[in-house]
Design brief:
Length: about 325
């Protein structure tokens, strides 16, 4: 059977130091029927000329030069130009393993799945984190959504689009919200709601650079979380409810509120970000009635109920309790 064309979209912006590693890893794919779309999003360094040099060397590469509009806008430009029957995304400062697209393409074709997801390695300054077990499984839509929303130790299905391969028919009318970060949250949510089956590969084919200096993840965490990330999680909750998935919506809300507690602790750690901790506390107080309703559900852990009760009553006391627990209890448990 003839292989189908896979379009790989790479958003490029001021990453001349990392771009060759990224593009070389795509060119080295064991799956050869690729269309590689490099979208130069108005780079001010040599990134654009590097893209052009690669295009001259390999006819599979198409380069789009455009005015800077951000990651979402660059990805949208790539989707507009893509002609493949499958669409994948790679961030220009990351890189992929040689068998990534062959493995995901073959899994989709074998399982008649509309999307595939793989694990990824977290590349940090202190080392590499990889929890791969090497297993593969086909998940129904409901199974995939449950894992995506609630998590499961056996799988790593993150909201990132770069760890996935999508059938064109699944996402061809979807676009990323321009001017926003954390844009993958709703893109993946909507794609998963549309699919019938998801092929999951428990192999880390993607290398995600977690703490590159100057990356989006390291800049203005408070504004990003409050202005982009939190509204997208809230949109996800509403999207599930409007689609008639009320139980999943409630579970998404539960994990959203748990996430807010983690954010609160993060922001309290630095005097410069404590204003954002106050805003998180304000969000929790504003949603107090809904939180009480959600936290009565059977799937809510007893420990989470206690933590949320204290956080709603005395946020500062909740912070101090977490710090005491981390300082004294965690070390004792690690010795057991």
């Amino acid at each position: 059977m003839e292989e189908k064309l896979v379009s790989v979209i790479v958003a490029v912006y001021n990453i001349e130091e990392y771009l060759p590693r990224c593009v070389d890893s795509i060119l080295a794919q064991t799956y050869g029927k690729l269309e590689i779309i490099l979208v130069d999003d108005g780079s001010r360094d040599r990134s654009g000329s590097i893209c052009d040099a690669y295009a001259r060397k390999d006819r599979r590469i198409m380069v789009i030069h455009k005015k800077n509009g951000g990651l979402s806008d660059a990805r949208n430009a790539g989707m507009d130009a893509a002609s493949g029957e499958y669409i994948g995304f790679v961030d220009g400062d990351d890189w992929i393993e040689p068998d990534m697209y062959r493995a995901m393409y073959q899994a989709c074709e074998k399982e008649k799945a509309q999307a595939a997801a793989c694990r990824y390695k977290q590349i940090t300054k202190s080392g590499v984190i990889d929890g791969s077990a090497g297993n593969s499984v086909c998940l129904s839509r409901d199974e995939a959504l449950e894992i995506y929303v609630c998590g499961d130790d056996r799988y790593l299905i993150y909201n990132s689009v770069w760890s996935k391969l999508f059938a064109r028919e699944l996402v061809e009318d979807m676009r990323f919200p321009v001017g926003k970060n954390s844009e993958d949250i709703m893109f993946t949510t909507k794609a998963f709601c549309r699919l019938e089956r998801l092929a999951y590969l428990d192999e880390a084919y993607y290398n995600y650079v977690l703490d590159r200096e100057g990356s989006i993840m390291n800049e203005k965490a408070g504004e990003r979380r409050l202005g982009d990330e939190i509204p997208f999680w809230q949109e996800q909750i509403a999207y599930f409810r409007e689609a008639g998935m009320e139980e999943l919506s409630d579970k998404a809300a539960y994990h959203f509120y748990r996430r807010l507690l983690f954010y609160y602790i993060d922001f309290m750690e630095n005097k410069k970000t404590r204003m954002f901790a106050d805003k998180i506390a304000g969000l929790l107080r504003m949603d107090r009635k809904e939180i009480h309703r959600i936290y009565k559900k059977d799937y809510v852990a007893m420990g989470d109920r206690a933590r949320m009760k204290l956080a709603l009553l005395l946020p500062w006391a909740y912070y101090r309790a977490v710090k005491i627990y981390d300082r004294y209890v965690v070390p004792l448990r690690s010795k057991e």
